[in-house]
Amino acid sequence: MKKRIYADNAATTHLSAAAAHAMEMYSSENYANPSSLHSMGQNAKKILEEARSRIAAVIEAEPSEIYFTSGGTESDNLALKGRAFCYPGEKKRIVTSSIEHHAILNSAEFLSKMGYDIVRLPVDERGIVNLDDLEKAINEDTILVSIMLANNEIGIIEPIRKLADIAHIAHKRNVPFHTDAVQAAGHIRVSVKELNVDMLSASAHKFNGPRGIGFLYVRKGIKLTPLINGGGQEAGLRAGTENLPAVMGMTAALEENHNRIAENQNHLLDLEKIILEGLSENNIDYRINGGKEKLPGLLSLSFKDRDGEKILHRLDLSGICISTGSACNSRETEISHVLKAIALEKSYAKGAIRISFGANNTEEEAREILNALLKVVKR
Q: In terms of pTM, does the model score above 0.90?
């Protein structure tokens, strides 16, 4: 049977050997509860705190600022709701963008129904938030700004440092800034110091770690209300026995990807080049959605007067896995909120697909994808 080609790494990535090894080690040998007071429990606690320090070192944070969660969705929910619930009964404002992941948008909608004032900033045709729009949106009641570092559908990288600086100086109130870095962590350099953010979400399965584990960075001094109550783990912010094997798998995967960022980026750009040059050489009418400042290896392409879902299924029949957009929105067949936000013409928007390469993809696979795509689009 012909081996399938997987080019949907923006949805999830394969578990790396380093992550799998770490998980096995801490499942079979160091399996005690980190909250137990006996020697095995305290050893597990020591290992957990070492992992917290290792993750903090990668993003240039302090270990006490890293909180383990079940993944990006929980981290985003904790950032928004945890911040909002610090102000019960008050009509406080939260500012976000129109192209956020649904973990942010749906959390914001939930808070809106509770009476919070939610502002969704527009983006330009590249998917970039305008700095002036953010400054105008912040008022005396603003308690949080949340704008993603890199978009999961079109890969655009937002000017987070500039946006965060605006939030911190607006009205001299130093409004906290959260960024959803789920799609970016492990793929581009992420430093909370350089970005000047107060909170940052990440999820292991996006960078070759296990599913069901992630973390939220919270700068010291930022107040959040816990969403999960119980035994008081994670410094009282997130109750529940820590998943030590998953934490160790995530730590190994993040360090491995961080150490290979430059190498991986160059490889992914080479794979992109094969697709884009091949489409152009064959005079295919297509567009690249988003601007030039984007994640390497993530291609959002639109083909005029074509159907992206049909392209996906026909490539799948050829043994090639891609997507039409965010896997979190895969059940919806209408044009995505991201493509609507960048005002992509309907004739192109309907023909949108997303090819997202990973470090394990080869140039041969990229050429196979190109050839299959040319056949389908021309047909």
A: yes
